[in-house]
Amino acid sequence: MELNERLLSLVADIYDAALDDSRWSTTLSGIVDLAGGQSGGLVRIGAAGEAVISHAVSVDPAYIQSYIETYEPFDPSRGVLHAPVGQIQTIRDWIDVDEFRTTMFYNEWTRPQGLEDAANILLDKSAEGISRLSIMKAGGPVDRRMYQVISHLTPHVQRAMLVRQKLQQQNELETNSVSTLDALRTAVLLLDAEGHITHANASARDFLGEGEILRSVRGRLVTNDLNADRVLRQALAGTVVGDRAIASASISLHMTARDGSHYVGHLLPLTAGRRQRFGASYDACAVLFVSKAALDTIVAPDLIRKLFKLTPTELRVFLSIVEIGGVPDVARSMGIAETTIKTHLARIFVKTGTKRQADLVRLIAAFTPPIKV
Known about the structure:
This protein is an alpha+beta fold and 373 residues long. It contains 15 helices and 12 strands. Strands 2-1-5-4-3 form a 5-stranded antiparallel beta sheet. Strands 7-6-12-11-10 form a 5-stranded antiparallel beta sheet.
């Protein structure tokens, strides 16, 4: 009964360790003690063949180092790499005892530690590498009790390792996603149905800090453009009630800051298809992309001029409309009559396939490099 109670306690510890990597050493020590071993280790061998001891108990650090640097290739326990996953194997499954005692590995690494045998289990095997558990025994071969204890615990260790790998993959994915989002020049804000910000990338945090176009009020996104703010609220509400038109389409927002500068926003619902899984990981129902309608002064003007076959004056009017605003302000800035500006603007509309000044703002935003430099 005592053995069963200790086994049940260890099973709980194993799954706790899957969620908290710092618990593995204590849990591994409990496995070694209950099995009657002297020491133990969790070994990971990568796709390139490099061995890493993830956790080890009751092994002198010098022996761990020498194992990795020198003795691992000579360890007969490597034979477990070719065994079925989950099967317990000992030194005697790969080499005669008398022959084993003549090897360099035994005389220089195993015997100095007082070890005679080891139970080895291949926990998982994939293209990324393998994991194995080794419980080493002193004073004789692996006995029935050790085999019984390890047999009971092996399936749980396997599942725990699988859970751990999945969590690590998820963490790596989230870390990479955050790094990628932070590299974007475009502000990216993940929002719930009430407009609360569940995640903001670096550019979005800059926008929020400046407060020129976007603000956070008790965690809720507010835009300084009243019309855009109204459209944003309606769209977010639509994702909740299942509006099909809203659930699948991107909604464009043209926003003007207090200083007159222009911004373009695109709200993309995350309530359908593959987007839904991404949104769920951030408790978000939509993602808002916001960029300032400003040119990359080195690349974009020349590209726009060549692409739309604009004259130098038309290009100046195009850029001024975006940077300054309406026709009267542009006319004053350029020292040209308003009627002349309107004539140039009409030609620009034809050449660019646009109809309104707001369309020109969106067009400019499309030429802004997405990655920060």
